[in-house]
Amino acid sequence: MAHRIISTEGDRIDFLKFVSGVKLPVTFEWTPGRDRSLAQNKLMWLWAQEAADQRGDTSRVEVQREWKLRHGVPILRADSVEFRVFTDLALKPLNYEQRMTAMSFVPVTSEFKVPQMVAFLDAIERECAVQGIRLTDPDPGLASYQERYRRAA
Length: 153
Description:
Largest sheet: none
Helix content: 55-70%
Distance between the termini: 29 Å
Radius of gyration: 18 Å
Strand content: under 5%
Low-confidence stretches: none
Number of domains: 1
Shape: globular
Order of helices and strands: HHHHHHH
């Protein structure tokens, strides 16, 4: 399905021009918000590597899967009826190890909007602090960006 992010008034004008030329009938859907940023995604993977290195018993991919299951799934369940139904049918019947395996195939963080990714990264940061895992502070620009979304929520 085609999609386009509209961030500026110019984007909106361009989209309205595009829509006026589309052959009818057509159905449009939209989702408020912006997809999680690449900087947020990069930070998550950096933290997963740092956590894996400090734990010494796992890989960054396994750490990221754990985080998806423990923190990401609840965030998406809270915000999406469809995801809640999916997890009730497909994940709840599985044991923990099977759920962890499923995290390799179930899109979670890739579905996040920026505020969801902020909540996810905040949960990871809290968990790692409790576990004594030291994480790199986000770039000041990313930290400021996340704070704006944290305040807006």
